[in-house]
Amino acid sequence: MTFKDLFILLLGPELWLTFLGFFLFTLDLIFPRAPKKVFGLLTLLAFVGGLVLVAAQVLSPDLADEVRQAAQENRLGYWLVTTFSLDGLATFSKGAIFIGAILIALVTVDYVEKNLREGIPEFYGLMVFSVLALCFMVSSVELITLFLAIEFASISSYILAAYLRGDPKSSEAAMKYFLVGATTTAAGLYGMSLIYAGTGTTYLYEMTAQFMPQLGETGVAFSPPLPVLIGLLMMLATLGFKVAMVPFHGWCPDAYEGAPTPITAFLSVASKIAGMATLMRVFASGFGPLSAGWVPILAFLSLVTMTFGNLAALWQTNVKRLMAYSSISQVGYLLIGVAAFSPSDFQTLLGMSTFQGSEMALPGIFYFLLGYAFANMGAFAVIIWVENWEGATDRESFEGLAQRSPVAAALLTLSFLSLIGIPPLAGFFGKFFLFGAALSRGLGWLAIAGVVNSVISAFYYLEVVRRMYFFPPRRPERVSTSLMVSSAAVLGVVGAFAIGILTEPAYQWAMAAFFDVVFAPNISFR
Amino acid sequence: MEIGLSHYLILSGLLFAIGIYGILTRRNAIALLMCVELMLNAVNINLVAINRFLQPDWRIMTGQIFAAFVIVLAAAEACVGFALVIAIYRNLNRINVDEINLLKW
Amino acid sequence: MGEVIAFYILALIIVLGALAVVTGRNLFHCGLSLAAVLLAVAGLFILNGAEFLAWVQVLIYVGAVLVIILYAIMLSENITGERILLISQNRGVGFAAATLVFALIAFLGISLSGLLAGHTSSVKDPVLALLEGADSNVIVFGTLLLTRYILPFEFASVFLVIALIGALVIARTAE
Amino acid sequence: MDATPTVTAIILLAPFVAYLINVFFGGRLKEKAAFVSLSLVGLSAILSLLVFYHVVSKSLSGHFEGYRGTWLTVPLGSKELALGYQVDTLTAFMLVVVTFVGWFIQLYSVGYMAGDPRFSRYFAFLSLFKSSMLLLVLSDNLVGLYAAWELVGLCSYLLIGFWYEKPEAARAAKKAFIVTRCGDAGFGLGIFLTFYLTGTLSFQEIFHQAEALTGEKAQLISLAAVLLFCGAIGKSAQFPLHIWLPDAMEGPTPVSALIHAATMVAAGVYMVGRLYPLFATPMIEASWSLQVVAWIGALTAFLAATIAVAQDDIKRVLAYSTISQLGYMLLGLGVGGYSAGLFHLVTHAFFKALLFLGSGSVIHAVHTNDMKKMGGLKEAMPITFWTYIIGMGALAGIPPLSGFWSKDEILAAAYIANKPIFIVGLLTAFLTAFYMTRQIGLVFFGKNRDPHSHPHESPPVMWVPLVVLAAGAVLVGFIGTPWYNVFHKLVHFEGAPHHPFKPLPMILSLAAAILGILAGQNLYITNPIKGPDDEPLRRRIGRLYDFLANRWYLDWYDPVKPQPGYYLTPSFIRFTIAQRWVDLHIVDGMVNAVGYLTAYILARFYRLFDLYVVDGLVNWTAWITGFIGNGLRKIQTGLVQHYMFIVLTGLALVALWTLMKQMP
User: Fold this and answer.
1) Residue B64 belongs to a domain with what CATH number?
2) In chain A, which residues have their Cβ closer than 8 Å to the Cβ of C107?
3) Does residue A386 register a pLDDT over 50?
4) Which of A39, B44, B104, D347 could lock onto D406 through a cystine, CB 3.0 to 4.6 A?
5) CA dist., res. D463 & res. D467, Å (int)
6) Is C115's Cβ below 8 Å from some Cβ in D?
7) How many domains are contained in chain B?
8) Model's pTM, two decimal places?
């Protein structure tokens, strides 16, 4: 395989996105009068194409070997492969990101036509590029690339959040998002410099290799070098900021409320998937041998995050803001999975000991993420559905929705049920895997806290449902929407159902993704 | 007397802490952005000093490259940050961050 | 000895300049103090054998970023129509948080820098072969950027373009 | 002077004689009653000091077990009950605190109570209290301890209700009596259980026997310890029996200083310290009864400190502070810091008595208890102000004042034994510094908010004790510095682990205190409140403030909505009415109806239970959950700098936690 082949195979989806993104920008320059819908459809095309390319990467049987082979023969290829990894974690989360992005693109078109008067091509272009940044984020196994990708994703999100030109709330949301982001970035970079000081490298797998000998045969966690551990925690500021975990969550409710709704959906779905995947890559894979140092902290933060999200959500009257707190609490559940990590998992990942699926939480996180993405997208599609008609997202706009649009009400109810965790929807099994793993790792208190939190969360989700079904509608006319938005909602709910019913295959897929997490490009250049 | 790594670490820590102080106390958004620059420079001092003191081979300049990318980031951040300041000024007629709280609770 | 003196002078400039940035009352003066800090940091880079980086710092930071800052100050003074006087608030809390962070870092710096081992790579890196005989900082820097860090380098270019486009989109006035 | 039976009996009986004289001749003595009391208590104080000196010098020079002796033996059937005393170092310290601090408080009372129609009665009660308290510390057996325990409770009841014309005072006295009785019931059971297990009531014998116990009985001895601890919960006002102490502030201020700050409420702590070997069986580290002590203490310390933050009554703040500090002492004892907890008892007696007397001086000057109506007293009352500052600094834990050393020692012990408790202690230290700064700010700084009052400095008879106690609050700490800990040398527990000095907890506790002071200074001193209704804290934390001001809705004696008790109390009343009705009918001979009635009552009771208890509990839980949610929501102030502050402090705390875990 030549270098060019390798380059295209390895970076296929990313190259495709870059190409289409710049194409969108230039198209606007060449044909200023092109109908705006064209840009939306091109964006959709970009994401569908990306999904296809990722699928091709996953399905081609010996791609990984070919890549490895080529990298050994080719110097440039070596550097590509050592910074940009094509392991299961990356492909799985790219798949999830693209699925989320497709649904988001579907709901964006109408919203944009209704709410934006200018800058529409750039809006789509920026969406494409932020998805590109997310793809880089989940693939990079080197700190410099990783931090550039995170910043790229953040900066394009700031801009997108500020996009409602005349709306002060939008600018304010972006401003807060930006300032908190800049602070956490600085802290995270400081942490990276400490990690660099402690390890002398920026490659995650080299760090793993350094810590591995100290892990020992028994899998007993050891006390990690302090600068590295403190640096890792400071890096948690950046990653925690991306996924909106407490105490780095401050921006989240405000940005979610102020940003254009499709961008809110983007932040809560695509951005969160990428953030969680990166968090797992850094913590569970790069610094897995140091788990004794960070597991208690993540367990504690997980508890705080879900409790804060759920309790604060109880009082929200704006459904967009409610979704913000809800997404914070969902991150709390996800973190249970990270906290249930143990050194023996690490050895399992390396193939050093046999796999006991029930004990390991990491595949559960992926399963949960996928279900969460579908359910959340279903919910957001209905929210946009209503917002496009009513022009608002307060609770009152949803009153009597069951009479005004029974389909929308049913879809939103199902999405919420999945988020609460009612079988047979995906949310239930996701929580089942995560709480089960926590139980088997001696984190019973965390599992109990998760269950209690799920009960609390039912209050605010069902409050919205109650208003939809038992309150008289504010206005009599039906709420209709375009085929794109409704199909996005239907796809989201169907996805949540499918993942729930096909639990076993989905879980197997998530698990398969994980046997590559600790993918260290086992190539030595000769 | 010898200047060692800890001198640089402490200097960068001081700069970082001053940046944090500024970020928490200044009200003007532009001033806040300057404080962010201070914090990023603290990181750069760290990176370059670590590179020099801990890497025996001077040609492996990972830290310097890292610092260069941090500068790139700082440029992009400053650019977007000021664009946001202008946008928020246009919409709200103020740039003091403690007066910007339409969104809360 | 020369290095010691240079370090302390630069450190003094950095700390005093930074304090001026965070406490000054005049935004314009703050911007100028920031320039002093950035230049002194460039000086530190030279002290550490990072000549090229020092130039990058001067050109990009002092040249570009600072110009943006000063430009924004002028612009906002224009639009507010009056000289911006800066006021700080929550000083006690800010001071406490900053002290806490500094104490942490200083603790790490003092007690642990001795524990940091020298860096050795466990992977045999092919870049070393390319660097045989390289004798200047710039050559090594460029070689590394275009080999080992080729991907982040290319990625950064896209990043900058998008940041620029985005900034333009949200900053431009309505048509 | 050796502590012979005669000497100890004189120490004990001199105040009692004063009591008798004042009761029988008080009408004629009038103002002179104070002199009788002062001179006799003074005699006992001097003797106590001599004994103290003797005991201390003996035990510093070598191994010294303490004096023991018997006052009298009472034949009880085949057995005989020996009423004896013991004077070891712990007792010696308590003797000094009770008589010495007590004497100055009595001196202060002369000024404070001047002109009261029941002047001599007051001194009579105070003397009786002294005598009982001395019996409490001198006793070497559970019977004497229990008798004294009930006697001090009685005196407390009499003195809280001293101004019984005031309905609040009468009610408060009753509340104190009933609530502490709940704890005493446990105490009584504990005594029975101990007697059953060991067959003796003398402390030494009990410890001796307890060590030899095996099997089930060894388990039961811990239960006995916990039951005995119930008494301490009542007397030392620990959660959930803490509710009586704030109301007890209806009594005269010197009484609050002596009984409800320095001595009687510390009796619970003293008792735990005295019976420590019982608590520490079989091992100090593995004892679950000590765990109970530690957690109750920690919980109370935190709870009371949060409540103190939101009180406007100057004495109630101090009352909650006392509860909190007592919790601190028990926390210290519970985590194995035996001498730390008792050292805090001694230092606390000085500075809290000082603070109470200072507040009395303030109340005397402005004739109100409401801090919101004070302000600006710094100029008018310089002596009170400066002594108050010393007391406040000691309480907040500012070096080198006494509270710093003792609090730090407790925290150091907690740091080693139990990290969560350490964190709670740290939070409490922060809150303590905060509410004391708030108090100082409201009372002494700003402008006078009551135009009608013309404050002035109190007479010398009042400020001299202030100065003496302030000197004590400064100096007494130096007997327990980490570098040269005389107190530890004197009062220590053989089984307690000894740890080297650690700087980290000290730095952290100092940081917590300084942060608290800074926060208080920021809110209350830099920007003085504008009027009696202004509350900067409420502006910041909203309904959380009301929640704290309402004491967490935990007062089960006087419940308010939405507490379960609010629903529970009327149901109890109805239940008793129903019972009376049943009684009447049974007495009337309707025997056949008994079965029916029982079923009826059960059904009725069950219905009431369901209606009030279950529903009340559910409502309360839902309400509290929603309430906390609303409070948490308020974190999102919308101000981006607050978010950044949360980010950075969160990060720093996480890093600190890691450091603490990783550093050995």
Assistant:
1) 1.10.287.3510
2) none
3) yes
4) D347
5) 6
6) no
7) 1
8) 0.69
